[in-house]
Structure formats: structure tokens, C-alpha cells
């Protein structure tokens, strides 16, 4: 099966059914046939994120940022992925851009949560000798 639309639809169905790992398999095949299709890549990144394949999600999201640096949703997903990997300081610039691009109160709330986490992480570190 190499019909990209069919692979995309199957991936979406598996994600909707709560099986993001299976979804990722179909979406990865679709992405191999359409490596710059932002819809396919976004669905693939979501499937990876939802199945906790965070390294794969990050890779796909970085590709998406290269394709469209002004996509606030992609920036949000990348920030959330980095945060979920406990890389809060790296997540902040992505979340700040997402907040500026989307003006969405929920994105602002996510940004505030990660900012607090970075502050907490820094204050929890022992002082250098």
C-alpha cells in the first residue's frame, strides 16, 4: 500500500482508537512517500508523542520547524516534547515562540508551567564549590 491518503487515514484511525504505536507505523510509511507533507508529519509527530517515542517525535517536529518556522502548533508540540523529556530549558524558546504565534491562553499556561519548572530546577541544584 503506497497511497499516502490511505496511509494517513489509517494512521488517524489508529490514533483516534487509542493505538498511537500502530498509527505511527502507517504514518511513517506515508512520510517516507511524502517527506515534506506537513499534515502527514504532524500526524506522525503526534503518534510518536502519544506513544512516548519522544526522540522520534522530536526528530519529526524539528523537520516540521524547518519546513515552516512560523507554525505555532509545531512549536508548541516541540516545546511539550522537550519538556516531557525533562529538557525544560530547551523547551522554553519553543513555547515562547508558540505563545507569540498563537496568542492562545492554553499555550501561555503551558509556557508558565515550564518557566516555573526551569526556576524550580535551577533552585534545586546544589551550589558549585
- Rough shape? elongated
Uncertain runs with pLDDT below 50, 5 residues or more? none
Taking the sheet with the most strands, its summary is:
none
Task: Count every beta strand, where a strand is a DSSP E run of 2 or more residues.
Answer: 0
Radius of gyration: 16 Å
The termini sit apart by 61 Å
Q: Overall pLDDT, averaged?
A: 94
H/I helix tally? 7
Structure overview:
It is elongated, with a radius of gyration of 16 Å. 79% of the residues lie in helices and 0% in strands. The protein contains seven helices and no strands. Helix 4 (54-67) runs antiparallel to helix 5. The chain has helices at 4-16, 20-33, 38-50, 54-67, 72-84, 88-102, 105-124. The mean pLDDT is 94. With 129 residues, the protein is mainly alpha-helical. The longest helix is centred in the C-terminal third of the chain and has 20 residues, at 105-124.
SSE layout and pairing:
Elements: H1 4-16, H2 20-33, H3 38-50, H4 54-67, H5 72-84, H6 88-102, H7 105-124
Helix pairs in contact: 1-2, 1-3, 2-3, 3-4, 4-5, 5-6, 6-7
Please outline what is shown here:
With 129 residues, the chain is mainly alpha-helical.
